[in-house]
Amino acid sequence: MTLARSLIAVLVSAGALLAAVPALAAPVALTPLPVKLTTAEGSFSLSARSRIFVARGDVEARGVATQLADLLRRTRGLNLAVVEGAPRAGEAGIVLARGGPAGEAYTLQSGPSGVTITAARRAGLFYGAMTLWQLATQEAGRGPVTLPAVAIEDAPRFGWRGLMIDSARHLQSVETLRAIIDAMAAHKLNTLHWHLVDDQGWRLEIKKYPKLTEVGAWRVPAGAAGRDARGRPVRYGGYYTQDQVRDLVAYAAARNVTIVPEIEMPGHALAPIVGYPALGVNPNPPAMDRNNWGIFPWLYNLDDSTFSFLNDVLDEVMDLFPSDYIHVGGDEAVKDQWKASPKIQAQMKALGLKDEHEAQSYFIQRVGKHLSARGRRLIGWDEILEGGLAPNATVMSWRGLEGAVAAARQGHDTVLSPWPLMYLDNRQSASPDEPPGRGRVVSLKDVYDFDPAPAEMTVEERKHVIGLQANAWTEHMRTDRRLETMVFPRMVALAERGWSPATTTDWADFNRRMPAEFARLDALGVAYDAVPFEPQTTLSAGADGKVTVALASSLAIGEIRYAVGGSEPTMASSRYQQPLVLAANDKLRARTFVDGRPLGRIRDLSVHPDSLLTRTGHQLKACSDKLTLLLEDDAPTTGDRAVFHIDIMNPCWIWEGADLSKGAVLTARIGQVPFNFQIGAERDRIPLRAPATPEGELEVRLGCEGERIAALPLGKAAREPALSTIAGKIPARDGRHDLCLMFTSKSVDPTFAIDRVTLKPN
Ligand code: ACM
Fold it and tell me: What is the pTM of this model?
């Protein structure tokens, strides 16, 4: 090709690429970064007149071409025709051609004479089409677009580039799952591990066992959310019908995404056992407990009839999901019920199983045999190693990488999904604007920096690493939008780690591509978390009643521009360099820019000296960090709910440096949450302070072990499920003090929490 000969070779590093090709209208911003990318002079004009060509009779290519046309119509408003045959002489068209690399690999060349995507397999053609789509969506906007001239050779680093979605804790709509699959496909992610079963709900219609969904798919939410306006129990949940699943599996397959279903066993099984108590060890499973989070004791028993049930379920599962792999869970099966049951112990003895680990191994291996009889492979969480691995089993390593190392040493394949880096329920920054989740921060950079070539493994052992995966556990993702926000953009970082070569580790260059990524996610209609890019404010007292405002984004990417007085910050606005001194009622607007492009939203701040008197629960210092959550209030049941920053093992907050020289009035907005956490004996370690009044008090101490200087009775606030306010006087003390705030209570249920505190000097 003439184009190929005229190409200017540029290293894959897009940083270098930027410098070398100043003539390009828009610098190339593809994610994941291709293996080899060279740029050339010129460009290709993509417009509604452009046509997509496939060879006559190439049904697969035609399908991919139609998908590309649909996507361009939806996201850019361009209506391209798909044509069988070749472009007319002189026509610059888009050609999907066969040949070249196999598997998911492809080549793409674009220039004034057109775009050619070449791949041997459908998957490769599809990914070439996704790269073309990315070239067309580097900037927000609709209508014609100029694509840079490039030559790309591309192939994945790993075969398993996965996202796990937990639909058991909270069910998502099929539309949301489709949108997430679209966004996965656009970033060359190819595996959706679908967590369909857990203690809280069974989400898959099984024809032979209707009670799995009639009973097991519905629960009554904990706390205030569990009662309607007339005090009746709320039925919460739902499930996916087999027709919906078939459609979704096909939708995903068309986008090169394999859905791997997970049917949890032998633990995390309360929901099915509530539907069919004979599956369990003990009769009378506690149906109400399905609104709890944590690790439950409810296990399947070892009866033949239970294995027949599981085989029947898996038969229907395998009929629905053509994936090579079927995930059987295996994690966190505390064996207390098996240990305590004489019947289970007798069965174990008869089977020659020396302990409960061997019993779990027997359980998983027996199920594994059924899967292999139908040509499928078993995958499970790393606990399936305990007591002996099933032949051919693949280990999903989540408790660090030890499981992966052990599996590889035994010659088994493994998928890396270690806590905490690959756990998307961890929040993305320490900003109070983050959605509910776990208190630990796993930033976009943390995910980007994850190295899927563990140093603990030899080169040979690393060959067993078939890929990596991040997991969206949804205990604290009640809405679909929150799920999307926790998943993106971190999955974009994982996509690069999973697809691009090991040498692609340039965080600064990844940042340069983020504005394009946000434009794409906007075009796809998928929510994402921009908070870590946005300027956050820290206020402190300045002279003469003024306020000093420090601005910083938690990812510290790009530059912050700001305007005082209400106008929109642009690249022409002042660049933030040092804290600003602002007067009362000044309006500050600030935004982050990367390479001249805005990243994230404009942040507004109205300055008021009184702002310094109030701190939210997120701004107060936590007394400890044992099990810290950003925990959503369970009330009110409709409308916005508070999100508390709380260590549920020690609910306690510190106001640092309070000036008590004149005494103060403390006003606290407080809420309460049900204690719906199954944490075993840990619950007894939560400190309880005896109340002096029937409803308890908010105690104020000088340091957490120090003198109690005030106790504000909760009174009727203790019975208010939503937020309410209490106030009281704090006596004068010399100097500044760290005030420790905690509640007295007879029980951990409910747990009281601070939403915000105002401390006004007398
Ligand atoms: C897990 O996080 N329990 C796999």
Answer: 0.95
